[in-house]
Amino acid sequence: MSAALFSHSACAADNGCDLSAANAAKAGGEACTRAWMDHNLRLNDVQVIGTHNSYKLHMPPEEFAAHKAHDAHGADGLDYGHRPLREQLDLGIRQLELDVWDDPEGGRWLHPPGALRQGYATPPWPPAQAALMAKPGFKVMHLADIDFRSNCVTFVACLSAIRTWSAAYPRHLPIMILINAKDGKLGPGSVPALKFDTAAFDRLDAEIRSVFKPAQLITPDEVQGKYPTLREAVHANNWPSLGRARGRVLFVLDESDDKVALYRGTRASLEGRAMFPTIKEDSPAAGYITLNDPLADTARIHADVAAGLLVRTRADADTVEARSGDTKRRDTAFASGAQYISTDYFEPDSRFGSYRVRFDGGAIARCNPVRAAEKCAGIPIE
Description:
This protein has 382 residues and is of the alpha/beta class. 36% of the residues lie in helices and 12% in strands.
């Protein structure tokens, strides 16, 4: 880090590890504290809030009612939606989730049966979105046959929105973009989803790199550096400093073991890949893991975070916590140390109550309670 970023001589003399954020604040105020954090904290020393299925829009009432008539219990779990990605980032969200569906020829999802059930004679997209849906490339939806409405219908469009926001705020905390590669069984009347294979994952990496330049991406190769494996690098805490990570994005692949194996191929770790897949802790490619139930996996999350891994967990699921107002899962997720806490309720849904997921004081990010709480003395990062 450039010494020019240190606003006080005491900060400039810090050089690293001994002072706390509180001492930096006493020495030189807020600017000094920020400089200390950028220099002394690493990417995995931070905890932020993210959104689950970040692209998802509420289903129109008539479509939701028709779906609920077929699946009352399952429909309730779909009854949520989010603002456009740029607005979520404005509010402080620093982890986004995108579900991608392979569409190499284009037009595969133009006529979802969930909309046709309501009597649509033409695709249920505005003209500009319909044109994008007709083009080759990955599409972004939750359930391609029922719950398909998205605030950015193509993967490239979603990433472009994130890139544009990032360019406007170049000092933002790193944004983690979680990817689900969707190819599961769809409902009656739906076009079959294409299975992900190595070629599809190659195209997915290519779309990421078509939007973000190398310097904008935090990749497995960067973190691995000169270490023999990514796992060894992570255990040695070789994640970039907070200062080097600002203004950048990293991608993770949240998928089953078989898909992760296809994505990794015969690589020793993840050489040349754009994403960190969720993978078991003993793998040479271990660096990131999804552990979505903080109540069942509290000890495992705590151990993984202490060992240097990045972890994502969920504060709520399927609208259950919002409807009941139960905060136990949320509070356990916060205390677990998982760096990324995903929610459908960064803002409360007035239909259900006041449940929401925010840090105390409205902070966008805070020092990780497992890795860096004592260093930061409760001072928020952003």
